[in-house]
Design a protein that fits this description.
single chain, 207 residues, alpha/beta, 13% strand, Rossmann fold, six-stranded parallel beta sheet, 6 strands
Length: 207
Amino acid sequence: MRRYIAIEGPIGVGKTTLTRRLAADLGANLLLEEPDDNPFLKGFYDEPTRYAFQAQLCFLLQRAGQIDGVRQPDLFAEPVTVADFFFDKDPLFAELTLSGSDFALYRDLFNRMAWAAPVPDVVVYLHAPTDVLVHRVGLRGRSAEQSLAADYLDQVSARYRAFFADYSHPHLITVDAEAMDLVGDPAAYAAVRDAIDGPPGRVHLPG
């Protein structure tokens, strides 16, 4: 039983769209990052050096609170949860934006919160080229993201690639979200569903 499915990938790759569709199809609990609830995010995008620690700490505390529901499921049911993040990825952004004593403090807090974090049964990693990410971020029109630079998105994507190249998980599905139209192509979406429902392993789509 796939009780906890996590969709991951860089900003603008389409993870929230896929998460919503999967949750609707499976009748699952929906667990989404809430960037609009982070009061420091726009400040970080405008002035990264000044607001990096506040924004990162806010996200860390927010994600820790959100996963409590996954860690403590209903005793009388086995609810499925589909999330557009998982806790292990949080340091990706901290390593990119924090340095020195700020990162040391962040890392200590992360380690204290992460020891009991639930591990997803399935992880779906979406990736796409930077120009595709820039285009999609522009299309969704979030005001806080309008100052996002292509070089920052490129660095974020590189961090994700490095993370998942070494990430040891029994059921990891890597999806080229440029080659596969998960919104408009039913066959592409079905391929992802089949990979989630299939036997554990490292799956690359398209194959």
